[in-house]
Design a protein that fits this description.
- The structure holds 2 protein chains of 2 kinds.
- By secondary structure, chain A is mostly helical.
- Chain A has 2 domains: 2-67, no CATH class; 79-275, MetI-like fold.
- Chain A has 16 helices and 2 strands.
- In chain A, strands 1-2 form a two-stranded antiparallel sheet.
- In chain A, strand 1 (57-58) and strand 2 form a beta hairpin.
- Chain B is an all-alpha fold.
- Chain B has one domain (60-269): MetI-like (MetI-like fold).
- Helices cover 72% and strands 0% of the residues of chain B.
- Chain B has helices at 8-29, 33-36, 51-58, 62-93, 99-108, 114-127, 134-138, 145-157, 161-168, 173-181, 186-202, 205-210, 219-229, 234-254, 256-269.
- The chains are: A mainly alpha, B mainly alpha.
- At the A-B interface, helix 1, helix 2, helix 3, helix 4 and helix 6 of A face helix 1, helix 4, helix 5, helix 6 and helix 9 of B.
- Chain B: Pfam families: BPD_transp_1.
- Chain B: This is Carbohydrate ABC transporter permease.
- Chain B: Keywords: Cell membrane, Membrane, Sugar transport, Transmembrane, Transmembrane helix, Transport.
- Chain B: The chain crosses the membrane at residues 65-89, 101-122, 134-155, 176-198, 234-255.
């Protein structure tokens, strides 16, 4: 291949033509990227700035808006509904993130072996991940239906009392965590399985010769090697957890008694149900800043871990 | 013969635990209403009853929702392949003023949470007269920074020599992209197609905001409403649920390798 290039560079006519074409390259480049650039920047940079403006205004999405300065943010800090939305989201994330990441690692290690049916096991663990949150929500609304659901029917069979599930304010949020673990752990498993292929077999062998047991190898060789993967998963799962919405909308609509109103549900409700868009934008900004801080924090810890 | 591994005793129940809810989805979709509404409900139907499926398919709106989802996803996948590969190729191969800055800005937008942009995006779509049309779902999904980025990464990894020969023969960039680069880019094409299909087919939040009329619902939005309206007809709701999940599930089972590679790739790149 290189020789073809070589012979052509000797031809002055071809060289001149190539030079001319290279000059028109800039136009070609911009022509290729401009649809993507216009769409992506137009539908992100503009809305982000617009949202910031909105958060300083009173706006009902219809009539002209009114400038109120920091009043939305001040009201947000004193709104007990926002406070409990933050609290519910924190509980959800504090359970979902570590359980899915640690569970994902444990399952990935268990699935990282060459035995019969291993492909089937992997498929089954992962398959809930591709099921939409809407479909998950509708399915579990049925499974956990207090009257017709199979969950209460099984409890009845083993002699336990029927549960309220999504109609019980003490249970609903934890059920959402459980459903999310069912569907979201598979992603961690897949990413860890890919990461486990990068664990050096020599290192594992050396540790074994040095007398390390199965658990010792896991703790001192496998887990440290996987640190970058773990940090990525913590970040990814935290972002997902703080943005949970679809599943809540389909199953509980934030209830019962507001016990599952998470931040994004709060934002959606304020914008598109009560039409207080400025207030909603302020809440969205508060969430975005929190996400940014977590993201930067984890990036720093990843840099440290890489060193 | 080798003794089967003891790991099966751990892995088989674990796999079953993950599979059970979906199995129950399938089983309950072929139950009769009488068997479902009994307490305690039957765990295994006495016979396969397709009444739920007949009800859903005969419903005036459900087939329309399926079609709407199909249109939105098909347009989004096609547009992401075309625009993503064009942009990704230019960023990988063509030197032009401002390319680094623009690429950096585009990648930076990936960290913007959707909640921050949803209200203004709604207002923009309203200005364009697209609210309550499929256009409102299609336009924001036409190209994602992830698609451009994945194509760029793939094209950078290809050896330049393949293109040099065609370039010297006088081929234009578009021609090179179409007849030399893209035929080699199957992994990138399938990754972008899989990720785009998964995110557009499964989306609920944006359709919920952008669509009001039932005739313009997507399947996810329709299923959610359908459940609310047919609360006691669980077999029909579950049949609708199976139909909603089936395209993704079939796609996953047929192209499992591409799915897993794509999703693991999003993980590793982070």
């Amino acid at each position: 291949m290189a020789s073809v290039v070589g012979t052509f560079t000797l031809d002055p006519r071809a060289q001149a033509a190539a030079k001319r074409r290279r000059r028109s390259e800039g136009a070609t480049g911009w022509a290729f990227v401009s649809p993507s650039v216009l769409l992506i920047l137009g539908l992100s940079v503009v809305p982000v700035l617009w949202s910031l403006l909105l958060s300083f205004q009173v706006n009902d999405l219809v009539s002209p808006s009114e400038w109120v300065g920091l009043a939305n943010y001040r009201a947000l800090m004193q709104d007990p509904a926002f406070g409990s939305a933050v609290q519910h989201t924190a509980i959800y994330a504090a359970l979902y993130v570590p359980l899915s990441v640690v569970g994902g690692l444990a399952i990935a290690v268990a699935l990282d072996r060459k035995i019969r049916l291993i492909g089937l096991y992997r498929t089954l663990v992962f398959v809930p991940f591709v099921v939409s949150a809407a479909a998950q929500g509708v399915l579990f609304s049925f499974v956990l239906d207090p009257e017709f659901g199979v969950a209460n029917s099984l409890l009845h069979k083993v002699g336990l009392p029927a549960q309220g599930f999504f109609s019980n304010p003490d249970q609903a949020l934890y059920l959402l965590v459980a459903i999310s673990l069912w569907s979201g752990t598979g992603f961690c498993v897949i990413v860890y399985l890919a990461g486990l292929q990068g664990v050096s077999a020599d290192l594992v062998e050396a540790a074994r010769i040095d007398g390390a047991g199965r658990f010792g190898i896991l703790r001192h060789v496998v887990v440290p090697t996987l640190t970058p993967v773990t940090v990525f998963l913590l970040l990814f799962q935290t972002i997902n957890a703080l943005q949970v919405f679809d599943l809540v909308f389909v199953t509980t609509k934030g209830g019962p008694l507001g016990s599952t109103t998470v931040i994004v549900y709060f934002i959606w409700e304020k914008a598109f149900k009560t039409f207080t868009a400025g207030y909603s934008a302020a809440a969205a900004y508060a969430l975005a800043v929190a996400l940014l801080v977590i993201g930067i924090g984890l990036q720093i810890s990843r840099r440290r871990a890489a060193r | 013969m080798r003794r089967p591994s003891a790991w099966h005793l751990v892995l088989a129940p674990l796999a079953l635990l993950f599979a059970l809810p979906l199995l129950w989805l399938l089983v309950s979709s072929v139950m009769s209403n009488a068997e479902i509404n009994r307490f305690p409900p039957a765990l295994i139907p006495s016979k396969v009853d397709l009444g739920g499926y007949r009800y859903v398919i005969g419903n005036a709106l459900f087939p329309q929702w399926f079609l709407n989802s199909l249109i939105v996803s098909a347009v989004a996948v096609t547009a992401n392949l075309v625009l993503g590969s064009l942009g990704g190729y230019a960023f990988a191969r063509i030197r032009f003023a401002g390319s680094k800055v623009v690429l950096g800005m585009m990648l930076a937008t990936m960290v913007i949470p959707f909640q921050l942009t949803m209200i203004p995006t709604f207002l923009v779509m309203k200005q364009l007269g697209l609210i309550d049309t499929l256009g409102a779902l299609i336009v924001p999904a036409l190209v994602t920074p992830l698609a451009v980025f994945l194509f760029r990464q793939f094209f950078v990894s290809l050896p330049r020599e393949l293109e040099e020969a065609a370039w010297i023969d006088g081929c234009g960039r578009l021609r090179i992209l179409w007849s030399i680069v893209l035929p080699l880019a199957r992994p990138a094409l399938s990754t972008v197609a899989v990720l785009t299909f998964l995110s557009t087919w499964n989306d609920l939040t944006w359709p919920l905001i952008a669509i009001n009329s039932e005739t313009n619902y997507t399947l996810q939005l329709g299923l959610t409403t359908f459940q609310g309206q047919h609360h006691t007809q669980w077999a029909a709701v579950m049949a609708g649920n199976v139909i909603t999940v089936l395209p993704v599930l079939l796609g996953f089972l047929l192209a499992q390798k591409a799915f897993i590679r794509s999703l693991a790739a999003t993980g590793i790149k982070g």
